[in-house]
Amino acid sequence: MTLPSNRSFFTALIQYTQNKNLQKGKTLHAQIIKSHSSSCVYIANSLVNLYAKCQRLREAKFVFERIHNKDVVSWNCIINGYSQHGLSGSSHVMELFQRMRAENTAPNAHTFAGVFAAASILVDVSGGRLAHAVAMKMDCCRDVFVGSSLMNMYCKAGLVKEARKVFDTMPERNSVSWATIISGYASQRLAAEALGLFGLMRREGEGDNEFVFTSVLSGLTVPQLVNNGKQIHGIAIKNGLLSIVSVGNALVTMYSKCGSLDDALQTFGTSSDKNSITWSAMITGFAQSGDSHKALKLFSSMHHSGIRPSEFTFVGVLNACSDLGAAWEGKQVHDYFLKLGFESQIYIMTALVDMYAKCGSVADARKGFDYLQEPDIILWTSMIGGYVQNGENEEALSLYGRMEMEGMFPNELTMASVLKACSSLAALEQGRQIHARTVKYGFSLEVPIGSALSTMYAKCGCLEDGTLVFTRMPARDVVAWNAMISGLSQNGCGKEALELFEEMRLEGTKPDSVSFVNILSACSHMGLVERGWGYFKMMSDEFGMDPRVEHYACMVDILSRAGKLKEAIEFTESATIDHGMCLWRIILGACRNYHSYELGAYAGEKLMELGSQESSAYVLLSGIYSALGRWEGVERVRRMMKLRGVSKEPGCSWIELKSGVHVFVVKDQMHPQIRDIQAELRRLSKQMKDEGSELTTDSFSAAL
Predict the structure, then answer these.
(1) Cis omega (within 30 of 0) on the bond before 448?
(2) What distance in Å separates the CA atoms of residue 540 and residue 107, rounded to the nearest whole number?
(3) Measured between alpha carbons, how far is 61 from 703 in angstroms, rounded to an integer?
(4) Hey, how many other C-beta atoms are within 10 angstroms of the C-beta on 690?
């Protein structure tokens, strides 16, 4: 039998490489070895290329290493093969490039294209710069493919100015060149520059294509740019590009990010070829704009349409569940992505942890966190923030301590959550330590660190430090103003709180609902009834805000503290919102303080009618009936309390000593120093009795 010639081997290898037919390629390789044709450099190079294109880099490298007279094509085949194999392959490219130069093989344009592609994947700027210098020395940068690859490397590293220098010196540009530089500006949120280049490209007569359109649209992410997006949309229609699915996806994403959901939905509806990216863009748009119900409904439609969700779809859906507090729906989504095998995706699991935490299922959030065990700061921040949001501040501080021990670098949101935990515990010393760490890590007093610090100091009663942080903030948002106003109000500086509120308005910061809660609370503490009425009316008259339950509660508190109990009752009964029981609870407490027992009995009975489950309401009403001598009322309240299963909640307090927080609950015996504490309480009790003081509460006996 006559063996095939080298030419026929070469022709067959090209065909198998184009078709990525690995099986036939291996069979042919065996024939080549049998015919002793593998020593031919052209055949050997073709074999390297075949295995590389079929993602069999091990075999490609094996053949490559056995080529005795390697030429530039040999090196290009293996370098480009590795560069096209993602992160794991690209890590070998720089080593191969150095070997190539050490073995005195001169690289060409194809070599540099592969090297720059690998450098962009690795974000290896130093290695890329060295290759850039070699390419300039060999006059290869004039090649359009080399220039485009080099620009892509600089853009991926965020060095858009360097990329622009390369672009401006390119003698020839193609659509890839334009798309690369426009995408580079867009990724850095430099929309004006991206739009300017898009206009320049069209003026120079470069043909419009989908890559350029998707690149420029990706840079339009704020409402102010939606009109620019509409103009590009019109150009895409004129050029017949809407039939390309990537352009439709980019338009849906652009409109969603710009807050123009009606346009996004219209574009989504007219898209004839929707894929998972199209659905994900629309679902995420709804979720990010607060239309979470629509996001979940659209996800259901996607499921029924038979479209397989991607990891980005699940992230958007889980975010929607987080915003709604929809734990049941979130669990269903969890089961669904487990079924599809997405449990190892860090982005999905981070969104899952955040969802469970925001829905109050902290234990489930921690299970997801422990499952991953990833050194991912977003994941750790979600878990710490989840603990803080659910009032488990000690756990938040403990997890932060573990994060520090593992050497992870926090971000600004991490530190803001930890400072909030310190605020809630009134743990001033720990708060100071966290403040020191923010300085150590180089965080400025910008939002959210500045706001969190001023809040922490204010809540811990350290107004001097809180004010110092507040005044040093380069820019103050409404959260920062609210924190300082609240701190002043709660620490007996009501006058200063009112002055700061007026200063905030003069600086042009629009108050929100929290601002009015703070300022009404200050009026309540100072007994400023008329001024309180003025601020309450200001909400709707000046700022168009409808007062919420908390604002009504503040107003009732202002009237009640001032002894205007009848006005408080009239205001409560005329309230146009569903306030539940909170307003009557405030009035009941005030009636007890002012010994207005008849009005107190009226307010207490209102609470009983509404089915209050708070033990304090029953205790107060029982005390009022006792003061009135209505013993049948006392007995009735006690029977009702027993019938409804209402029990008095145990008291809880905590104290910070030597950078540690000690928590105490009535009748709790779990504190590690409980014996020493009990001995000291017995000593104090005896000392009080010896000095003629009477114990008027159960505090000592409960602790003992």
Answers:
(1) yes
(2) 73
(3) 75
(4) 8
